[in-house]
Amino acid sequence: MPLAADKPDTDKVFKALADAGRRRLLDQLHADNGQTLSALCQHMDMSRQAVTQHLNLLEEANLVVVVWHGREKLHYLNPVPLHAAYSRWVQKFERNRLDLLHDLKHQLEGNDDEKA
Amino acid sequence: MKKPDYVYVTYIQTTPEKAWKALTDIDVMRQWWADPKGGCSRVNVSDWQLGSDWKHQRADGSGIVDILGKVVEFTPPRRMVLTWGRPSEEHELAKHSRLTIEVEPYTDDLVRLTVTHDELDESMLKGISGGWPTILSNLKTLLETGRPLPGTPAVH
Lengths: 116, 156
Hints:
CATH topology of chain B: Alpha-D-Glucose-1,6-Bisphosphate, Chain A, domain 4
Mean pLDDT of chain A: 85
Low-confidence stretches of chain A: 1-7
CATH topology of the largest domain in chain A: Arc Repressor Mutant, subunit A
Oligomer: heterodimer
Strand order of the largest sheet of chain B: 1-7-6-5-4-3-2
Order of helices and strands of chain A: HHHHEEHHH
Mean pLDDT of chain B: 90
Helix content of chain B: 10-25%
Number of helices of chain B: 4
Number of strands of chain A: 2
CATH class of the largest domain in chain A: Mainly Alpha
Structural class of chain A: mainly alpha
């Protein structure tokens, strides 16, 4: 459970992503969603305790969600905050760049109506 | 029971009642159940009685049904469980997967919305798992700002 009462925000998402080990955990869940801690530890060259700490940080950022399935605690990749960060911080700039290219093309090729 | 295929969670600054309305009221749903990058809105149509049919319908006037199923559980404003099938497999309930939507109060002004899908087959998993993050971001943006993400088809 995310412990803090404040809502999971963009800062936490970027902080959680700023670590190769945590990114590897996300990759593992992307390849096979819904894994136990033990299963995740098998592919990580760090202590079980370190993996737990990384998972807690990912959970606080809402990038990982825990679901109890019977007696098993399963970890799921939650891509929703990634999508929010993407539309806020990546898509916007991509669009500007495309607009820029579009304007450049217009300037270089001239106005279609005038040419016709 | 098999483990869920995917679990999506988003925190939304709203009340459970408003979130529930957005999930069940066609006029609200058509404002957010869409991909801003293309395609028309979709709405879920049902009388929401236990055992009733529900249909995931295009809101462009065509009435085309993309997904359908049965209402398994409906507990406003907290939890709904629906079966999720292809129109060609409407009566083959064993081939339907199962969608659960849960709305929980998280703090005073924050709601935790969870979407869980289980018993999906491979092709359906590929087809829909990419869509949920967009749809849920759209819902969150609409409830928090009163407008969906830029590019969402306008409602007529």
